[in-house]
Structure to design on (78 residues):
């Protein structure tokens, strides 16, 4: 390998979403809100027209509604 050769680029382990309408049910996400409050879970439902989504929060498996204007949403790659 020479100095000009670059290693294979890997995709980022997570990507921030500005538009949740492309989110799919079952996707693992991390939501960071005010004061750095974080939620991790799998998407259950999406209502982009209302600006909300519901997740099954891990590890407690409780349902949580998130207002997408209050949270930064990232998809967590497996």
């Amino acid at each position: 390998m020479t100095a000009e050769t670059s290693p294979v680029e890997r995709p980022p382990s997570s990507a921030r979403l500005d538009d949740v309408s492309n989110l799919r049910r079952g996707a693992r996400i991390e939501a960071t809100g005010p004061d750095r409050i974080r939620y991790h879970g799998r998407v259950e439902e999406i209502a982009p027209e209302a600006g909300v989504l519901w997740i099954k929060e891990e590890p407690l498996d409780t349902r949580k509604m998130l207002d997408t204007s209050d949270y930064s949403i990232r998809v967590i790659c497996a």
Notes: DSSP finds no helices and six strands in the chain. The two ends are 30 Å apart (CA to CA).
